[in-house]
Design brief:
- The chain is mainly alpha-helical.
- It is about 60% helix and about 0% strand.
- The longest helix has about 55 residues.
- About 5% of the residues have low confidence.
Length: about 160
Amino acid sequence: MPDPQEADVAQVAQEAPANPEAAKPKAKTPRVKKAKAEPKQRVAKDAAKPAFKAVESEPAPARGKRKIHSEKERVQKLAQIEKSIRRGGSIKAAVGQAGISEQTYYQWKKGAAPASTGDELTDLVELEAENLRLKKRLAEHLRKENAELKKRLGEA
């Protein structure tokens, strides 16, 4: 028994269109483009303000120009940035306020770290000297106390 769907497909294939031109798709006609209106010039809200501010102002300084900061300036800017960060500001904002890049900030911070370890080393030496002095004082106090206890035991 032949499949009814196959029979339908065969029947459709046998039926050819009577008009061969009708089978071709319609050719598209090109669209007519609308003419664009000419752009209007903008009118300034306040007549006192100039239309172009860039013409009157001085040109911006060259971006590639580098400023060399002294050691004192570096320390001041690092302190300013640290203060701003402690107040809850972001590093990016603090560095921008100081007028340096984040990369410069990290380079300066890394360069300043060994100087602070010198201070830490001095503090460590002072602490060790104080520790030695306190140990001697404690030993002397314990000797006196021990001698006093021996006298009491000998008398008693």
